[in-house]
Design goal:
alpha+beta; four-stranded mixed sheet; 2 domains; Ribosomal Protein L31e, Chain: W
Length: 138
């Protein structure tokens, strides 16, 4: 007997929970998650992990979240497990940003000597002008 897992990631909209009475909203959200899982995975044997329950109940019974991102897995026996979805972070993007920063720093370093050179040139021209003015006055 091979263990094949059917694994899918869903974003469940819990917005209709707000239509139920305020003192029953978190309970209704858990029931909506259960209904969603049974509808999409075609099985009635559903287990919701504690993490999902804690996410829904974190803000109390009256204010459950509007949306929740879940990973639903189904095994050969038809058991469904609803758990939290955790995104994998891409490592490749970070070095690119660092490279851009290094390039910008290099450009700034290149620009600074130019500004200093301009200042030196301006000072030299001022000195030359002042000398020429002194000669003309004499």
């Amino acid at each position: 007997m091979s263990e094949e897992l059917l694994e899918r990631i869903y974003t469940i909209n819990l917005g209709k929970v707000l239509l139920s009475p305020s003192n029953q909203r978190a309970k209704r959200a858990i029931n909506m998650i259960r209904e969603f899982a049974s509808k999409h995975m075609k099985s009635e044997n559903i287990k919701i992990e504690e993490e999902i329950s804690h996410l829904v109940w974190a803000r109390g019974i009256r204010n459950p979240p509007r949306k929740i991102r879940v990973k639903i897995t189904k095994d050969d026996d038809g058991n469904i497990i609803v758990s939290t979805y955790q995104e994998e972070k891409k490592i490749e993007e970070k070095p690119k940003k660092e490279e851009k920063k290094v390039e910008k720093e290099e450009k700034k370093i290149e620009e600074k000597p130019k500004k200093e050179e301009k200042k030196v040139e301006k000072e030299e021209t001022k000195k030359a002008e002042s000398k020429s003015e002194k000669k003309t006055k004499e």
